[in-house]
Write a structure and sequence with these properties.
This protein is of the alpha/beta class and about 425 residues long. The protein is built from 20 helices and 14 strands. Helix 13 crosses helix 20. The protein binds beta-D-galactopyranose.
Length: about 425
């Protein structure tokens, strides 16, 4: 009897081991900050509960620039990860290269067509086939204000550029750093998304979606750069190269008044135990309420050997489950990538994010984020980054920047 049990136990253990070996995903991602890691953990645990083990391939660097470089090297070496966190046009670029697998079976079984917003499907599908599983919708035109500092300034949320400048001056007078910022090209570009949007929906669309030289090189763009120069005057001397989550920490720790950042910043506030409305205030960048510049993290599934495909399908299915979409996005700061997930578990900022997204979608004021790869392919995005960063760092005047912007975009198109 004892011998029988032991043999059975061994057999079971071997079967479990085999199942586990088959059901493994290696995931390349850049979710390494405290808030991001907490959200990633929701995904890891969800997959583990379904018998899918996780091999972690983190590549630090906000916005994913470094992750994309590592990915290129891995694919070139013939060793693609199973699943890769990816943004917008990058997904399409890889699909064009024929590197991605096909998720049609699970997508049609689960009816993704009906519940994933069309704005996301644009990047989750290529040539009519599902190639990626969207996990969230973030947006970039947000600001995160230290509530105590705002209260000291009178408590009114700034509704336009002039009121924003007045608030930043007030923070300065209070003796705290007005703007927490990390000088990295993608962070400069994230602010630029919001600044350009604040000068009008049509302007954002003409400049970043249509790449219209008249918009890229015109007076409004010069004004956008002037506003960047003004914002630059409110950051501290050590901003260069600072990671975005360290900038969030400055607002969290009462060292700075505001951070202009996508709603992944909320993940940092929550991780630090801070409460929206009590410790911090979330609002749209002044002048952009009603419009949304979005980006969506998706897991692109690479072509891998047949034995790894079931795990990819299981991961894709787990990601699209409404329960998971709620649990994950509540922690991440983003909103669900499906339209049928209740907002019940979300805090006020999350509820606002869900409502804003639905309204912008209905009103035609939802645009892909330039800074986060949802307006143009990486070649164009990087060309814009370069000009924005040089101007922000005082290497180019606003006049020079508009001229360079037109040329850089033309060259990269
Ligand atoms: C964005 C991404 C977010 C967050 C952020 C900072 O591009 O969509 O999920 O990770 O970068 O790393």
């Amino acid at each position: 009897m004892r011998k029988f049990m032991t043999t059975t136990a061994i057999a079971l253990a071997m079967m479990a081991g085999a199942a586990q070996a088959a059901e493994n995903v290696e995931v390349l991602h850049w979710w390494t900050s405290g808030g991001e890691a907490a959200a990633l953990d929701v995904l890891k645990k969800d997959l583990e509960s379904k018998g899918i083990s996780w091999t972690d391939m983190p590549v630090a660097g906000g916005g994913g620039t470094e992750a994309m470089t590592v990915l290129r090297a891995r694919v070139t070496a013939g060793n693609a990860p199973t699943a890769v966190q990816m943004l917008g046009f990058d997904i399409i670029d890889w699909a064009k290269e024929g590197a991605l697998g096909n998720l049609d079976e699970v997508a049609s079984k689960e009816g993704w067509d009906k519940v994933v917003p069309t704005a996301l499907q644009q990047f989750s599908k290529y040539d009519g086939h599902w190639i990626a599983a969207p996990v969230n919708v973030h947006s970039t035109n947000w600001m995160w204000i230290n509530k105590a500092a705002l209260d000291k300034a009178g408590g009114k949320e700034p509704q336009n550029w002039e009121e924003l400048v007045a608030l930043l001056d007030n923070f300065k007078a209070q003796g705290i750093m007005p703007v927490a910022h990390g000088g990295q090209p993608w962070q400069d570009a994230t602010i630029f998304d919001a600044v350009v949007l604040s000068l009008g929906n049509d302007f954002y669309k003409a400049a970043f979606i249509d790449l219209d030289p008249a918009a890229l090189g015109g007076d409004k763009m010069k004004e956008a750069f002037d506003r960047m120069t003004k914002l630059r005057s409110y950051v501290d001397d050590n901003f260069s190269g600072r990671d975005w989550n360290l900038a969030s920490a400055m607002v969290i720790e009462d060292k700075a008044g505001v951070q202009f950042m996508g709603d992944w910043a909320k993940g940092e506030f929550l991780k630090a135990g801070k409460k929206p409305g009590t410790d911090f205030v979330c609002m749209r960048f002044p002048g952009t309420q009603g419009s949304v510049t979005f980006n969506s993290d998706q897991f692109a599934m690479f072509k891998v050997s047949d034995d790894k495909v079931p795990a990819q399908m299981a991961m894709a299915s787990a990601i699209e489950s409404p329960t998971f979409q709620s649990a994950f996005n509540v922690v991440k700061g983003s909103v669900p990538a499906r339209t049928d997930v209740p907002d019940t578990d979300f805090d006020d900022c999350g509820k606002k994010g869900i409502k804003d997204l639905a309204e912008a979608n209905a009103n035609g004021s939802l645009y892909g984020s330039m800074a986060h790869g949802h307006a143009n392919p990486a070649s164009v995005k990087n060309a814009i980054y370069d000009v924005v960063t040089r101007q922000f760092n005082g290497e180019l005047s606003s006049e020079e920047a508009v001229t360079e912007l037109v040329a850089a975009v033309e060259g990269a198109k």
